[in-house]
Amino acid sequence: MKRIVTGWDERGNAAILFDGDPPQNPDFGMTRASEIWISDATPPDTRRQDDPTIGEWQLEPPPRGSAFRFATYQPGAEVEVHATETLDYVVVLTGELTLLIADKEITLAAGDTVVQQETPHGWANRGDEPCTIAVVLLSAKV
Known about the structure:
With 142 residues, the protein is mainly β. Helices cover 0% and strands 52% of the residues.
């Protein structure tokens, strides 16, 4: 996966800051993520030139921050029910993924979306092929 990050150089000109693989790709066995970008404030500092994705991986973004990532779930992968202090926008890109919430299970296919608002939830890939999702997490912490 290629990640392009634009920004500003020292002279204030538009520039490509990063071009290549994401530096953080945590592997959890049946699930793998790619950390694309993290902000640590709202509004974000769009003039920073360092890469905030370098360092220890965290599930949640910093307070008032955001995280943009991709996650791929292999067939049979399951993430137990958990809750985060985030508002999440989830888009299924490929395959199928089952959302586990309360006493319901909802199977999502490519193009389906979820707006996850701090509720306890889990994920399961009960299909025969990997499922990749794109996720933006917005911190609900102040």
